Amino acid sequence: MTALHALRVVIMTLSRIEYIHSRDFIHRDIKPDNFLMGLGKKGNLVYIIDFGLAKKYRCSRTHAHIPYRENKNLTGTARYASVNTHLGIEQSRRDDIESLGYVLMYFNRGTLPWQGLKAATKRQKYDKISEKKMSTPVEELCAGYPGRFSEAFAAYLKYCKCLGFEEQPDYSHLRQLFRNLFHRQGFTYDYVFDWNLLKTAKRMQPSQVQQIAQQRMTIEQ
């Protein structure tokens, strides 16, 4: 996924996760397989699916937060789980947000430093993933992005790791990180992905297709 598309996706997915949290639930299994693009006229929208591991994190009436607990089993997908989840700490909103950060790193890199680790048991593999995840600097994770992109995604991950257990993430602040980057790079937030253009291209003249392709290559550089 290109940097431009990653920016579009993170802004939309942050809004989806914020909505889930506003309904008093956390997803607890944020991963690429649980994001889908819409069909037809909604082909530019991101959807979150699979709420089988979702959990209510606060009372709908009083907004009383679930208590902090330790020694919890890992719930979700180890590859994208937050560090605190690996440490056996009860999940809260901060963990969904951190998991999204790892998903974005995966979209950019195509792989993560803790993929492919071998171990005799699942528990040992989880421990290896946890150790690698905690020892990999945020800057190294973001190294695949050019300049300001790397800075924005590093700021995102560092923010996630500083959140308290009951603290509400500042979703607007996080979205603004990437919106500011959009403006600085001169991007146009047209909600158009390359796969949307493939359908449109079939109805266009070759010269028009070439012109659009050149424009998009220019803003990606």
Write up this protein:
Its EC number is 2.7.11.1. Pfam families: Pkinase (PF00069). It is an enzyme of class 2 (transferase). One of its GO terms (molecular function) is protein serine/threonine kinase activity. InterPro entries: CK1_Ser-Thr_kinase, Kinase-like_dom_sf, Prot_kinase_dom, Ser/Thr_kinase_AS. The protein has 221 residues and is mainly α. The chain folds into 2 domains: 3-189, Transferase(Phosphotransferase), domain 1 (Orthogonal Bundle), CATH 1.10.510; 191-220, no CATH class. Helices cover 51% and strands 5% of the residues. It contains 9 helices and 4 strands; from the N terminus they run αββββαααααααα. It has helices at 3-22, 83-86, 93-109, 122-135, 138-141, 147-162, 171-185, 194-201, 206-220; strands at residues 25-26, 35-37, 46-48, 55-56. A two-stranded antiparallel sheet has the order 1-4. The chain is globular. The two termini are 14 Å apart.
Radius of gyration: 19 Å
In spatial order, strands of the major sheet run: 1-4
Contiguous runs where pLDDT drops below 50 for at least 5 residues = 215-221
- CATH superfamily heading of the largest domain: Transferase(Phosphotransferase) domain 1
Q: What structural category characterises the helix and strand content?
A: mainly alpha
The counted number of beta strands is 4
* Portion of residues within helices: 40-55%
Percent of residues in beta strands: under 5%
Number of self-contained structural domains: 2
The CATH architecture classification of the largest domain is Orthogonal Bundle
CATH class type of the largest domain: Mainly Alpha
Overall mean confidence score, pLDDT:
86
Give the distance, in angstroms, between the N- and C-terminal Cα atoms: 14 Å
Q: Quickly count the helices.
A: 9
Shape: globular
Element-level helix/strand string: HEEEEHHHHHHHH
